[in-house]
């Protein structure tokens, strides 16, 4: 029995924070997990910038509502779900992900939650568990699933390396060079073929 675990941002949808950076005109918010391996540090830095600029959850959600999946992402996901179980493992938050899941046909996503103050500001965040992606993959393995994973960033590497097969998708040159043992793909057709071969 197989479980395919996919990252969300950069793999199926554009990076939310980059889109928000462009819309808000705050270039610092372009920084993602491709640049900063420490997710806790990255998120606390982001929340500080939002607070500094007086931006609320609704401001971020309004930008997310305009984001569409990457071209071909829904078709890739649909094709994959015809042949195996698929779950999206993301370090994003339910409050961000819902409109994107609707556009992708409501796939299963396991992610985290934001803490919202009474006046609508993002005051904190709650991770589902420690090392969310690796912990979740290990949990699937403990109940009899072989995992196959794909992602593009530093926070995907543990889940990619832990399974019976793992692939980089549209990753950075630095990550590809640092992990030459991982097959790296640029198109959904390539990734779909590699996953099917690993099933």
Topology:
Blueprint lengths: L1 E5 L9 H9 L14 H14 L4 H8 L8 H11 L1 E9 H10 L5 E8 L5 E5 L5 H11 L3 E6 L5 H6 L2 E5 L3 H6 L5 E2 L2 H11 L1
Parallel strand pairs: 1-2, 1-5, 2-3, 5-6, 6-7
Antiparallel strand pairs: 3-4
Helix pairs in contact: 3-5, 4-9
Task: List key phrases describing it.
alpha/beta, single chain, 199 residues
Describe this structure in words.
Helices cover 43% and strands 20% of the residues. By secondary structure, the protein is of the alpha/beta class. The protein has a seven-stranded mixed beta sheet with strand order 4-3-2-1-5-6-7, with helices on both faces. Helix 4 packs parallel to helix 9 (188-198). The chain starts with a strand and ends with a helix. The model has no long low-confidence stretch (mean pLDDT 96).
List the uncertain runs. Answer: none
- Strand portion: 15-25%
List the helices and strands in order: EHHHHEHEEHEHEHEH
**In order across it, which strands form the biggest sheet?**
4-3-2-1-5-6-7
Number of helices: 9
Beginning-to-end CA distance, first to last residue: 9 Å
Judged by helices, strands and strand pairing, the structural class is: alpha/beta
Find the count of extended strands (DSSP E, 2+ residues). Answer: 7
* Main β sheet profile: 7 strands, mixed
User: Average pLDDT, to the nearest integer?
Assistant: 96
What would you report as the Rg, rounded to the nearest angstrom?
A: 17 Å
- Helical amount: 40-55%
Question: Shape, please?
Answer: globular
Quick recap of the structure?
This protein is α/β, with parallel strands linked by helices. The chain has helices at 16-24, 39-52, 57-64, 73-83, 94-103, 132-142, 157-162, 173-178, 188-198, and strands at residues 2-6, 85-93, 109-116, 122-126, 146-151, 165-169, 184-185. β6 (165-169), α8 (173-178) and β7 form a beta-alpha-beta unit.
């Amino acid at each position: 029995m197989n479980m395919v675990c996919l990252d969300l941002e950069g793999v199926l949808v554009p990076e939310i924070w980059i889109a928000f950076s462009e819309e808000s005109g705050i270039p610092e918010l372009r920084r993602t997990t491709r640049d900063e391996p420490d997710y806790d540090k990255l998120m606390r830095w982001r929340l500080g910038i939002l607070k500094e600029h007086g931006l609320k959850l609704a401001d971020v959600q309004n930008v997310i509502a305009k984001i569409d999946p990457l071209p071909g992402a829904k078709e890739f996901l649909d094709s994959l779900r015809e042949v195996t179980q698929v779950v999206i493992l993301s370090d994003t938050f339910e409050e961000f992900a819902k409109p994107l899941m609707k556009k992708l046909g409501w796939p299963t996503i396991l992610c985290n939650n934001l803490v919202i103050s009474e006046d609508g500001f993002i005051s904190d965040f709650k991770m589902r568990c420690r090392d969310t992606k690796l912990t979740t993959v290990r949990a699937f393995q403990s109940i009899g699933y072989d995992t196959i994973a794909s992602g593009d960033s530093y926070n995907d590497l543990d889940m990619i390396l832990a399974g019976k097969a793992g692939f980089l998708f549209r990753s950075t040159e630095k990550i590809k060079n640092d992990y030459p043992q991982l097959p790296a793909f640029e198109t959904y057709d390539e990734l779909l073929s590699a996953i099917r071969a690993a099933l």
